[in-house]
């Protein structure tokens, strides 16, 4: 009888980092609870009870999934892989943005002046802290013990900071839909803006996490070029064009001039980086054989 072939070694995760699991769960469930409070407060009468029951059932189901995924992420954080972190990010943004969409629609249907502008600003502040903060938690740069040199660690930290800035840029574009009492954009432009940002919030951080995971323990930040290219096309270029179109066509006064400047600076910086990268590749290319 033929002997069975040797089994491939499977990766065994180390024990989870309890502090990381608790902090990640706190950020996720805290932001979800605040979104639930917005949804409940925006409804009155018997409808409020129905909304409260729906969000409670949804949170219980989400918490059951989070119980396992957060532990896997906490164990994975001690390794060079970030696969479970990508799953957790996708689940979080998928559910959070669904709730945010209903909050946004409730603000649109509210009478002018009925919604507190401070509450709208507080919602934007919550998203601006929790969403980039969770991304940095999932990367867990401070727990990458295999990144030993200070220069490499700071180079990687700078690249992650650009990801956080892009997340803030996308959140600012979404916030322009609910912060002003009355938006000048047509319905199709509002929907296109919201779901375009929704898609990028789902995908771009997963791309950044996958680059960190694919590099492994021998991580080289200068070789992580996929995210900068995607960000250049989908955030820096498109965001500038979208904001310019809103100002020119719809007279939208809510356009953030600061983030327009950020994208112009990012375009110039990334263009210089790509030119330098091409020069380095050309200079260090092996000579062709005669």
UniProtKB/TrEMBL annotation:
Superkingdom of this protein's organism: Eukaryota
Residues that span the membrane, as ranges: 21-40, 46-71, 83-102, 122-140, 193-212, 224-245
UniProt cross-references to InterPro entries, sorted A to Z: CECR6/TMEM121, TMEM121
Keywords annotated in UniProt: Membrane, Transmembrane, Transmembrane helix
Family indicated by similarity: Belongs to the TMEM121 family.
Protein name: TM121 protein
